[in-house]
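User: I'm putting together a teaching handout on how multi-component assemblies are represented. Below are the sequence lines for each component of a complex, exactly as they appear in our records. Could you produce the 3D structure of the whole assembly as C-alpha cells, so the students can see both representations side by side? Please keep the chain order the same as the input.
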Amino acid sequence: MFQVSKLTVSKLTALIASLFLFQCASVPPEDDFRARWSDSLLGSNVQANTEAEIKFGREVAARMLVDVDGVENFELQKYVNTLGKYLAQYSARPELEFYFWVIESDTINAYAMPGGYIFLTTSAYRLMENEAELAGVLAHEIAHVKQKHIVNALDIKTVGAGATLTQLTSGASDAFRIAMDQAADQAIQLLTDEGLNQSDEFEADEIGLTIMVQAGYAPDEYLAYLKRVSASKATQQKELSHTHPSFATRLERLEAVKVSYGMENLNYAILEERFKQHPLE
Amino acid sequence: MQVSKLVLWSAILFPVMGLADEFHNVNQIVGDRSIGMAGAYGAVSDDASGMVFNPAGIAFSNSASMSANVNTLQWSQITYQEALQGKFDYQRSSYQVLPNFFGVVQPFGDWKVGFSSAIDDSTQEKQYQTFENLVGIQRFVVNLNNLQTTYNVGPTIAKKLSNTVAIGVSLPLHYHTSEFISNQSVLFEASSNNQLEWSNIYRRKTEQGLRPKLGIIFNPLPKVSLGATIDHTVVFAAAQTLQESQCSTNTTDVGCSSQINPEIINYSLIPRYPIQVRIAGAWFPNSAVLVSGDLIYNTAVKATDGFPAKEITLDGALGLEWYWTPRWALRSGVYTSMANTPELNNTGTYQNPHINRYGSTFSIARFSQGSSISLGLMALYGEGQSQLFGSIPNLLQSTTSLDLNAFFTTSYRY
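Assistant: Of course. Below is the structure of the complete assembly, with chains in the same order as your input.
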C-alpha cells in the first residue's frame, strides 16, 4: 500500500513539475517584474484592435479610390503629407501611421477613414489661402480618426462580445467577409452622404482646433476658412452641408472653444507664402 | 442539582463572544488577489485591494483599477466541548453573506489615489437552541442574537519616490458597531424546588475613530519586493448600552425568589487597540509565479476600564499565485490568527477564550482583457480553551472553531 502511495505521489510530483516547467517556458519575459501574465491579454487586444482598425480603414480608402483619382502632383502630395504627419503627432494615437492624399473632386470636403487614412479634395484645397487653414482642416480629420468616429458610428465594437472589428477584418469566415463588405460600404455612405453625428463633428472641430494650436498654427484661420466655404458655391459645398452641422453653429461653437481654451488673439503661424509655393496646377 | 443550576446561571451571566471578535487581531481577509493569497499581500499590494494591506503598493499599479468582493458566504461554528453538565457540547454558529470589500484606485499626476471600504471584522449569530436532556432540568432554551461589524472606510494616497521605492498613507474611518441580545430560560423538573429561571441581556456598542496606516515598499533586487506598514486604530468616541434583567422562581416564594430588575445603563468607555506592524516580502520569478509572505505583529494593550488587556500576537501569512495560461490562475495561501488573550488558568474567573486559529485559502481566477473574476474557498480552524461559566474557577471547556468561507471576487483595470 505504501509503495502504491509513494508511486502515486511521485507521479503527481512529476506531473506538477512538468506543468510548471512547460508553463515557465511559455511565459513571456516582462520588463516590469510586477506585470502578470494576464496583462498580456490587455496589450494583445489593443494591438489586435489597432491592426483591425488600420485594415478596415485601408479597405474603405481603397473603395473610395475606385471612384476618384489622386492628384498627380508629387510635390503637393508630399507637402500635404508632411504637414499632416506633423499634426498627427498631437493626435495621441502614436500607434497609427497617418496617410494624407489629395483627391480630384468638385466637392469641397475631406474624409477621415479609420486607421489614419485621410483624403482632401482639390476643391477644398483650392479654397484655402494659407497653411494654417490647411492645418485646420487636416487637424479636424485627424480628430475624427483619434476618436474612432466612423467605427463608433457603425456600431462595430472594437472590444467585447459580438462582431468585433478584429473579427470582421479577420476574414475568418464567409459571414465575416460579407459583414466586412457591408461595413466598408456603410462607412463610405457615412462619409459621402449621411454624415456623422453632429456631436462627432463638434468634437472633431474642438479637438482639431487644439491640435492645430499645439502644432503652432493660428486657430482663427480655420474659422476663416469655414466662413469662406459657407460662402462658396452651393453645388460645391452641398455634400459638406449635408454631412456636417450648419456653418453658423460650428463657427459659434468654435468661438466658444477658443474662449474656454484661451486661444483668443494667438499670434501663431499662418504661413501664406509657403502654402502658395504648392499650388494645385 | 445545585451545580447544574449554578452552572446555568453562570452561563447567563457571562455570555462569551467566541466568534469573529476582538480576541484576534487577524479576522476578515479582504480583496481580490489578496484573499486568494491568504492576505500575504504587504509586499505586493499593487491594486485596489492593496490599500488595506500596504498603501504604498498602489503606487506600483499600472492603471486605474477597481476590485470588489461581490459576495462572501461565511459560516462559522464554535463548539464548547462537554460544556453542559460535563456531557453536552454547546455549539454556536454564524452565517452571513458579506460583501466585505470595495476599492478604486486612480492615477492623479505623479500620485496614485484611491478609496476603499473594507469590513475588517464581522459576525452575525442568530441562534435558537433547546436542551431537553439535562439532569434535573426539563428544558433549557438559549436564544442568542450577536451582530458585530467593524468598517474601515477611507482614502489612500501613494507615490513612487523612485523606480524602486514607494510610500503611501491610508486614513480610513474606523467604525465599529455591535449588538448582543441573549435570552435564556431554564425550566426545572417538577421534583425540584426551583421552577423557572429566566434572564435577558442586551448590550450595544459603537465606536468611531481613525485607523491611519503608513506603508513603504522597496524593491532591493529585480523580482524582489519588500514591504512594511504600521497602523494604529485610535478611537475618538464610543458609546455602550447595557441592560440586564433576570428572575428565578421556586415553589415557596411568591414572585421572583431572586431577581435583577431591568435598568438601562449608558456609558462611554474608549477602547484601545494595538499598534500593528506588518513586514512582508514577495518574489516574482516571472510573470506567472508569485510567492509572498507577511509577518503581522500586534503590540500588547493594557487593560482599561471595561476592556480586558490584550497580549502581543505574531501572525503569519504565506501566499502563492500561479498562472498556467494568461487567462487562468490559481492562488493559494495559509495564515494564522492567534489569540490576543492570555492562556486560561484553573484559578481564574471570567476569563476570555483563548483560541489560536489556522487558515488556508484557495481560489481560481479567470482573466478577460482588463477584468478578472475569482472563485475561492477559505477554511479557518481553531483550538483552545474557554470559560463559559465565568464565576466557576477550574471549569474550562476545550473549544474548537471552524470558519468556512466561499468567496466570489472581481477586479477591473481600465
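A couple of points students might notice: The interface with chain A takes residues 44, 46, 60, 62, 222-223, 225, 284, 286-290, 321-327, 329, 367-370, 372, 413 of chain B (CB under 8 Å). Helices of chain B lie at 2-13, 33-36, 50-53.
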